[in-house]
Every structure is written in C-alpha cells, then in structure tokens.
Amino acid sequence: MSADSTSRPLRPMHRMTFPEAGPPRLSALATGTPVWLVTRYHEVRQVLMDPRFDRQSLKAEGAPPLLVVPNLLDTPDGLLNQDGPAHQLLRGTVQRAFTPRAIARWRPWIASVVETLLDEFATRTQPADIIEGFTRPLPVSVISRLMGLDHADWDRIRDWADHALSGGAHTAGQVGLAMREFGEFSAGLVAERRKEPGDDLVSALVAAGDALGIDERRLVILVLGLVVAGHETTMTALGNIVVHLLTDGREAWARLAEDEETASAAVEQLLRTVPLSEGRVLPGLIRRAVEDVDVGGVTIPAGSVVAVQTNSAGRDPDVFPPLDETDLFAPLPTPTVVFGAGPHHCLGAWLARLELGLALHRLAARFPDLRAEFTPETIEWREGQMTRSPRRLPVSW
After folding, report:
1. Pairing state of beta strands 305-308 and 34-38?
2. Residue/partner pairs of 313-319 with CB below 8 Å, 24 or more apart
3. Which one, of 43, 56, 33, 6, lies nearest residue 308 by Cα?
4. What is the DSSP string of 315-361?
5. Are 333 and 327 in contact (CB under 8 A)?
6. DSSP state, residue 385
7. Neighbours of 391 (CB within 10 A)
8. Under 8 Å between Cβ of 301 and 289
9. pLDDT value of residue 8
10. Exposed/middle/buried for 124, CB within 10 Å: 0-12, 13-18, 19+?
C-alpha cells in the first residue's frame, strides 16, 4: 500500500473495490499462512455465528501466524480471543453498559458534546480542518466521559492506539514498547478506580470483574481495548463518511439536516458503503475451523484458517442493491455485518450508530453550505494501520 501511494493518489474509501462475493476460496495472509476467504453475506454470517469456527484455537501452540507484527488484536487474553464460557464471562462485565437502552440514556450529553464542538468549529478561520475540529475530538470526548478520562494525556493515548492497531507502520519492537506503556497506564487506571471508584465505565468494569473473579491481566487488557475501540473506529468512519458526503455523495447533505431519524437511516447505508479498511484481511475477522465444515458447498477442513470479508458481504448482489443505485435513506433489506455477528458482535455498535447519526445530522443542519476545500486526489491519508482515514480535511461554509 505504501509503495503504491508514492506513485499515485489513494482512492477515497467509498471508491474502493473488494473481492467479488462468491464461493469460499483459498488465499494467503501476509505471513504466508493459507486462508479460506469467505465473501458472501449468508456465509459470512455462518462463519461468525457457528461455534465450529473459533478464536481460541488461533492462539493454540503451533497455530499458524496471522500477523507479521503482532498488535493488540493478537493478545491471547483479550476479549476477542476468548470463546464459550470464558468469553461470555469477560464480555458480561461490560455488555450491559452498551445495550440500546443504556446508549439511549446517553443521547442528551452526546448531543451536547456535538453542539459544543460545532460551536467551537464555527469560530475557526476558513478553510478549517474538520478532522482536527470535529471528527477526531467527538469520539475522544465521548469515550473520555464514559471512562472518566477527561484529564488524560490523549496525545499519548492516540500514539499508543496507533501502535495497538498497527498494520505495518511500526516495528515489532516499537509496538511492544507502546503496548507495555499502554498496559502500565491501564493497570494504573484499574488500581486507581478500585481504590476510589467513580461514576464511570472503568469503575463499573473493575467492580464487576472483581465480583466475577476475572484475573487482573484480563481486566487490564479489557480496559485497554475499550479505550482504543471506543474512539478509533468511530473516528475513522466519520472522517471517511465526510469525504464521501462532500464529494460524490453531496446530494444527500440537505436530507441529513432534516432530522435525527433521517440521518440515522443514512448511517446504516453509509457504514455499508464506506468501509474502514482497504480489503486486507482484518485479524478480528479471522476464525479457525475446529472440525470439517461445509460453507456454501465447499468443505473447509478442520484446522483451516478462515477469514470473512465483510466489505464484500455488504455488496453481495443477492442481498443488497448495487452501490451506484443505493439510496442512502432507504431501509436495508437485512441487517449488515459491518459490526460482525454472533458472540463477537461489536459491543460498541449502538454507541457508534448514535454518535454518527447525531454528528451527521447536526453538522449538516448547522453548516448547510459546508463544502470541501480538498479533492480526492489531495487528501493526505493516515496509513499503516488496520484502517485508513484522512489526516486532515479543509472545509469552508
């Protein structure tokens, strides 16, 4: 990817192409490990929901390597790499905080965060960078309040997060050092909230974890993962969506301003059509077959590594309309797999939906004449991570 970007501009994420949906087929990871690639919608759901495809066996002794440089997603004690009762126990410490009902109670203060950021953004000299002024600080502000991190050093946390989800931008030594520092920060946070609990998510997690007997290492990694996941993907999604809406999707801008319900409907389509990653196999979407399993008429042998391509599944012509015919405000015929499916379905899905819906509606309502002072060819991209997003986007209004 990096070599290509030096010779020609990278395409915006909404213009990316992905493997066509078709039967499972053999491919290979960057490590050389053979992998069965699953691309059709119903088969992607099958793999994600079938317990015969698990995560723990990917970490068993002698398991094939998945990453050239290990990162946070490679941690055996992390929530992502647990299955069955161990996974349910760990997930149960945090799941109640992220139900749709719980998230709905946060709507007023998330809306106030959006309005405060837009108030500040409106005072900036034009053209202003909407990444720095809005799309990056919004999810950071939300997760800061949820986890009681309002006074944390977010420049340092952002650097750790970049290493935690590195996709080739850092060496193994750099990632290891950053993860040790991030782990020490998270361990200190757990100890602090155990001693002096507050009205925040970390305090609730520590109390629940201690009551359930979850060991300290797993608890620390869970907190670390929530800090990263709580802002990284929403920040990336919002930046890439703004690129789409201010270029090829400009005709949708006025309708986003109508009301929150209309904007929320568009979010579902936008998440399907504007991907976070470029088509590389994401570690979180890899499983291993623990026995022979038939997927789409193809027998995947026991022990095989299997990867699902959710971007391809979201474009499956047997399920969804072609992207060039997509009405961003039309209801989807079936739920997407943007947030996964099954036991490892993204915990923060409802929070991300709420943040994106409020952000897009109020941004469009507040700045009806918002216009790009960039072109797809002039965007500077944040590369070398598991995802790709713009570093800056100058806009005027």
Report:
1. parallel
2. 313/21, 313/39, 313/40, 313/41, 313/44, 313/45, 313/337, 314/41, 314/272, 314/273, 314/275, 314/338, 315/18, 315/21, 316/21, 316/39, 316/40, 316/41, 317/21, 318/21, 318/40, 318/41, 319/41, 319/42
3. 43
4. T-TTTS--GGG--TTSPPSS--STT--GGG--TTHHHHHHHHHHHHH
5. no
6. B
7. 14
8. yes
9. 64
10. middle
Sign, Cα dihedral of 47, 48, 49, 51: positive
pTM of the model: 0.92
- Kindly state the DSSP code that residue 291 receives in the 8-state scheme: S
Q: Can the peptide bond before residue 100 be classed as cis, meaning omega within 30 degrees of 0?
A: no
The identity of residue 323, as a single letter, is: L
The rounded distance, in Å, linking the Cα atoms of 388 and 397 is 26
Amino acid symbol at 77: D
Encoded amino acid at 3, one letter: A
CB neighbours (10 Å) of residue 122?
13
CA distances from 99 to 14, 105, 233, 338 (A): 29, 10, 18, 17
CB atoms within 10 A of CB 17: 11
Q: Which distant-in-sequence residues (6+ apart) come within 8 Å of 358 by Cβ?
A: 107, 110, 111, 114, 260, 263
What gap in Å lies between CA 214 and CA 370, rounded to an integer?
49
Residues facing residue 37 across a β-bridge: 25, 307
Question: Which residue's entry shows tokens 């200190």?
Answer: 188
| Low-confidence spans in the chain with pLDDT less than 50 | 1-6
- Measure the CA angle with vertex 44, ends 43 and 46; round to 5°: 60
What residues contact 258, with CB distance under 8 A and at least 6 apart? none
Q: Tally DSSP H helices, then E strands, for the chain.
A: 16, 12
> CA-based Rg of the chain, rounded to a whole angstrom?
21
Residue 139's identity, in one-letter code, is P
CA distances from 316 to 220, 325, 357 (A): 39, 14, 25
Hey, what are 121's tokens? 């953004």
One-letter amino acid identity for 61?
Answer: E
The span from the CA of 138 to the CA of 144, in Å, is 10
Distance CA 303, CA 305 (A): 7
Per-residue pLDDT reduced to its tens digit, 137-151: 999 999 999 999 988
Spacing of C-alpha 8 from chain mean position:
27
